[in-house]
Design goal:
- With 147 residues, this protein is an alpha+beta fold.
- It contains 3 helices and 7 strands.
- The strands form 2 sheets. The chain has a 5-stranded antiparallel β-sheet with strand order 6-3-5-4-7. A two-stranded antiparallel sheet has the order 1-2.
- Helix 1 crosses helix 3.
C-alpha cells in the first residue's frame, strides 16, 4: 500500500486476464490530472454511496493519473488543471495500458494501473469525475493553506 499524505491507494500490476466488462478499443477518452488531485478524487469517488470510478492509470514517474471516461468527453471537457484526450482510432485495447501524453508534447510516458479494468466500472462518469476533481482541488487548497 502506498501512502501519500492522507491519501492511500493500492497499486496494481497490469491485469492481462482481468474479468469483468472492458471498454472496446477506442471506446473511451482519457482525463489526466496531477497525481495529488487524482488520488484525492479516487478516494472521494470510492467513498461515495456507489462505486463510481472506472480504470485509472498512472505514469511511470507517478506525476499524473488518467481516468478512463466515455468517448466524446474530450469534445466538451473544460476542467481547469486537467486535460481530456480523445483516444478513439488509436487501436488501444484494455487491459493494454494507454500512454499518458506528456504535458509539454514530448514522448508519451510509460504507465501502470492504479485501478485496473475488471476491478472497477468500465469508465468513470465525466460529471461525477468533474465534481470529485473540484472537491479534491478544494481539499488540497485548504490543506496547503494550513501551514
Amino acid at each position: 500500500m502506498s501512502e501519500i499524505g492522507s491519501q492511500s491507494a493500492t497499486w496494481h500490476a497490469p491485469a492481462p486476464e482481468a474479468d469483468g466488462p472492458k471498454p472496446d478499443a477506442g471506446a473511451w477518452d482519457l482525463v489526466t490530472v496531477p497525481v495529488r488531485q487524482g488520488l484525492e478524487a479516487v478516494d472521494i469517488l470510492r467513498r461515495g454511496a456507489a462505486p463510481a470510478v472506472g480504470p485509472v492509470v498512472h505514469d511511470g514517474a507517478c506525476d499524473t493519473l488518467g481516468f478512463l471516461v466515455p468517448p466524446g468527453t474530450a469534445a466538451a471537457w473544460d476542467m481547469p488543471g486537467s486535460a481530456c484526450t480523445r483516444t478513439s482510432g488509436r487501436g488501444l485495447r484494455l487491459p493494454e495500458l494507454p500512454e499518458l501524453p506528456e504535458p509539454t508534447g514530448d514522448a508519451p510516458r510509460p504507465t501502470g494501473w492504479l485501478l485496473p479494468p475488471g476491478d472497477t466500472d468500465p469508465v468513470t462518469d465525466p460529471a461525477v469525475l468533474r465534481k470529485a476533481l473540484g472537491e479534491a482541488a478544494r481539499l488540497i487548497e485548504a490543506a496547503d493553506g494550513c501551514h
